[in-house]
Each structure stands twice: as C-alpha cells, then as structure tokens.
Design goal:
Length: 500
RNA sequence: GGUCAUGUGGCCGAGUGGUGAGGCACAGGUCUGCAAAACCUUAUACGGCGGUUCGACCCCGUCCAUGACCUCCA
C-alpha cells in the first residue's frame, strides 16, 4: 500500500515516488507579510503540515521549504507603481522592515497556535535578492527575458513557442492555452513595455517614492512577482524537486510562471508533484482580500469579528479543516465551526480515556467486534494513502469513539477486544491524532491548582449528594457550568470535568 | 467571453454502479435524584430532464444554478 497524491500537472492521482528516496523536497508558497493571515491562509499551511508529518511518518526525510514574501509586489500591475509593503508602511508610519517583521511575527504566532511544525527552511525574498538577480541574468542570457527601461520581463511567447516542442507549453499546469489568453488579458497601463501582454515582470524599476529597492544590473529596483519562489526552491531543493504545494488560486499565473522560469534555467520542468488545496469559502464565496470578507486568524482565536458568534480555539479550526478533503472547497459558518468544536471534544475525551486503559484480555471475547476494530484502524493508513483523505480517517475514528465510549460505559465488556487489537488501537490513535493530524488537547496545562480546586468541589458535591442535599450539589454543578466547566458523572461513580 | 470546478438530508462534509461515511443539530429510548455527558434507535439525501444498465447519487448527454481562475490573492 503506497501513498497516492493528486498531481495537478497530470490531473490524476499518482503513486508518490521521491526522486531520491528517502529524501523528499517540498516547497510551499508562504505568506506575503504585508498583512495579517486570515482563516483562508490556515488551510494550505495545515494541509501541507499534515502532509509533512505524514511523509515523516512514512519514513521519508523531508526538507520542507516555505518562503516569506517580504519584498512587496504590485497591488495592480502598472496602475500604481508602488510596492504593497511600502505603501502601507507610509500609512502606518513604519519602516518597511518593521512592518514585515510585525506580520512575520504574527504569522509565526498563528502557525504555532495551529500547531503547524515550522518548515526546515523559511527563506525570505529580501534575503535572496542576489539569487533572484542571478536567475534573471540567466534568463536574459538565454534569450527568454528582455530589459526595458530598467525593468525586465519574461518573454512568454518565445518560451511557449520553443518549449511547446518539448511538450512543455506555457499553461501546462493550469490547462491554459496561450493563444486563448491574449484576447482576454485586460488593457493596462505600462503595457507598452512588454512585447506581449502575457509577459510578466522579473524585475521592476523602482520609482523614486518606492522605499524597498536594490541595486541590480538594470538599475535600482525590486524583484517581480514570481521569481523568488523559483530562485529559492532551486537553491534549497535542487533543480528538480518532489512536491510543490500551494493554494489553487496560485496555479495561474504564479506557478505557471515558476515553471517557465525554472524550465529555462534548468532545462527541465522543476516539480514532480504539484499539489493544490482548495479555498475556504464564506457564504459560498472565496475568502479573500478582494472580496472584503476575510476573518483574520487572531479574530478567529478571540472571537472579535462581527461574523463570529464566539471565539474558536486553534485546534477547532485545525479539526474543521481536517474534516474535509483538501481539494474541495470548505464553507465557513459558525454552525460548522461549533459542530467541529463539539466533535473534537468528544474525540479528544475518548482518546484521553483510551490511553489510560490497558488490555483486558489476551484473546477477544467478541471476535466480530474485534475484527471491526482492526478494520477501522487499518483504514487510517488506507485513507491517508488515498490522497490524504483526512475526512475518512476521522470518520473511522468516530466509529471507534462510539466503541471506546461503550466500553467506558460498560455497554461493551472490556474483554470483547483482544490485546493486539487494543494495543493497535491505542497506538494508531496516538500516532494519527497527535503525530499526523497534529491535534493537541484544548485544555491548557496548568500547575494543578485548578484541578485541585475542582476535585475539592467535586468531593463536596459528592457528599452533598450522599445526604440528598441536591440544592448544594446542583448549585456546584450549575455554577461551574456557568463558568464553562462541565461536570460529568461517570458510570463508575467517578466525576470528570471538561473546560469549555 | 475563455478555461476549469462544483451542486449530497436542517447545517458541515465523505463516498461508491447494487439496502443511505462521519460530525453537529433534531426526535425517541437507556442511564441519572434531576440534568449533562455517554450509549442505543429512528428520520430526513444525493440540482432538473433524458439516456446506458438487471440496477445509478455514483457512467453518458443536456439544461439550470453556484463558484474559482483569466488581475495581487492560500
């Protein structure tokens, strides 16, 4: 049984075979740190974090590279010759790098709360100006780029003509035909600098007011939109690497341009498997700056957004995303998030209980149930291998949760399940929930004082109940409930609690 | 306009040519001093219309609807 992933390039699921096993190179388009990350951004980083974890689980040695785009790009080509970052910097009276630092820090904070493992290398665009210039020089030398007035453009027409012969036409990833594109590109200012409308900027001359600028063979300027990813991915992962991930909205033109640049420089297509996650929608519409419908991650975490009925724990968001397949759209709503919150709690509580148990019998008393458990557990790997179907893995987990809770409540005798199945269940739950899905307990670890206080209240309530003083016992239960602490009377007479 | 997706029950969301994944909500039940939690059970479904097939939610055609990309965008 081997891992299969959907390759956007071939438009089908393919068996994943690293170029140089056991090493795997994975590049994921990172954030542009000119603003705060929103819910939509969480999806690729969680999706590819799970892939990263899973590849590690399978024994691969993965180098995970995710860039930080801190050299600004145009708001809109030609319309306003100002860098996103510099423009906002003026508004906020900040140094560009101060702004970049601020949003980079915020990004890292959000990633940590979502329990995403930091990438192996997190290169910045500003830290790789030299590499980008070198790459542009090579593109010019090879005849696929040209300079006009201090700016450099990529000659898409020539590229397409030459490389189509090798079966590498421009548009191969997104399924576009260049000839169809020409008519549909909008009329823009500054177009006269380009030979063709589909050409894209590699280097842009910096107008006087532009704060971020670097020396180059073509004068002072800053890198174009797509070159950083090509320069940095080839630097750290080689000319051809295994996986390139990112959001579907980057497929065209960003990833298409990356392919073109790298193909010219290295004479081969740079990526073996292109993986794209779909969008998070809100009322059926993509969450994005242009639609003015974004909910920032910090707002999600503390509930401060008009659309939010409450705060959502980062783990709820992670779980919410894992409940769908990464290639489908996922629609946000309070109802959906609240469902995820409850589901995650149920899963986690069953998991915590499970991990405290030991096998009750060497051989299963109920072979039918025992084999059902085995089958459900075996499904974890099977579904993950099928293009990371985390939704199906979770479905199996919930079927197991029902069994686990039944054992807990003694509806099912503990010895129904044999030792090997039981240990397998425990191990795989742990591996999947914690190591692969990266879920953590919602309850923040404290120094035990809160637990001590609660145990005291639980004892007092127990005593009250024993003497049928339900006024007192209910008061404790209800007041704690108001505080968001729920007491649960267990079948065995014990009492547990969960904190909302 | 071009290209490509999607349309599943109250909500979110998997999936397969042959008695309805899963989660949340809802209803009934068990348990409980009463609740909650947990467990059990039931219910509601595959955009419309054709076609292929013994049989289609799953294949084909068509229509409708929605969305994404074509411009910075996860």
């Amino acid at each position: 049984m081997s891992l299969k992933v959907y390759n956007s390039l071939s438009r089908q699921k393919e068996v994943f075979e690293p170029i140089t096993a056991p090493y795997v190179g994975m590049y994921v388009c990172g954030p542009t740190v000119s603003g705060e990350s929103h819910l939509g951004h969480a999806r690729p980083y969680i999706t590819f974090d799970v892939l990263y974890r899973y590849l590690g689980h399978l024994g691969y040695k993965v180098r995970y590279v995710r860039n930080i785009t801190d050299a600004g790009h145009f708001e809109e080509e030609g319309r306003e010759a100002e860098d996103k970052i510099s423009q906002k910097a003026v508004l906020e009276k900040l140094e560009p790098m101060e702004l970049v630092q601020k949003y980079t820090n915020l990004f890292h904070w959000a990633m940590a709360r979502l329990n995403n493992i930091p990438p192996s290398i997190e290169p910045t665009a500003t830290g790789h100006i030299v590499e980008q210039i070198e790459m542009i020089k090579k593109l010019i030398a090879d005849g696929y780029a040209y300079e006009v007035n201090g700016s450099v453009y990529f000659d898409v027409e020539k590229y397409n003509t030459d490389f189509s012969k090798q079966g590498l036409p421009y548009g191969m990833l997104s399924g576009r035909v260049l000839d169809d594109q020409l008519d549909t590109t909008r009329e823009l200012d500054n177009q006269e600098e380009k030979r063709n409308r589909s050409d894209f900027a590699l280097w842009k001359k910096a107008p006087p007011e532009h704060i971020m600028r670097w020396q180059s063979p073509w004068g002072e300027g800053f890198p174009g939109w797509h070159i950083e990813c090509s320069a940095m991915s080839s630097k750290y992962l080689g000319e051809v690497f295994d996986i390139h991930g990112g959001g579907m909205d980057l497929q065209f033109p960003h990833h298409e341009c990356e392919i073109a640049q790298s193909t010219v420089c290295n004479h081969k297509t740079p990526v073996k498997y292109w993986l794209h996650n779909n969008m998070i929608t809100i009322n059926g519409r993509k969450m994005g700056k242009s639609y003015n419908n974004v909910i920032k991650l910090s707002e999600m975490f503390d509930g401060t957004h008009p659309l939010l009925e409450q705060a959502y724990h980062p783990m709820t968001i992670r779980f919410f995303i894992l409940q769908s397949h990464y290639r489908g759209t996922l629609d946000f709503s309070n109802e959906a998030l609240q469902a995820s919150e409850k589901a995650l709690r149920r899963l986690w509580e069953a998991y915590e209980w499970l991990m405290k148990q030991t096998p009750a019998a060497k051989n299963a008393v109920d072979p039918v149930l025992d084999s059902k458990v085995q089958k459900l557990v075996a499904g974890f790997d099977e579904f993950m291998n099928d293009d990371l179907n985390t939704a199906k893995v979770l479905a199996n987990m919930f079927e197991l949760v029902a069994i686990i809770n039944s054992v807990k409540d003694k509806h099912i005798p503990a010895n129904a399940i044999g030792e090997s199945s039981f240990l397998q269940l425990q191990q795989q739950f742990k591996v999947y929930i914690e190591n692969i899905f990266g879920l953590t307990g919602e309850r923040q670890a404290d120094d035990g004082k809160l637990d001590g206080v609660l145990q005291l209240l639980i004892d007092i309530r127990k005593e009250a109940k024993a003497r049928k003083d339900f006024m007192t016992s209910d008061k404790i239960r209800n007041e704690l409930g108001t505080l968001g602490i729920q007491l649960k009377d267990e079948k065995d007479g014990g009492v547990s609690y969960s904190i909302q």
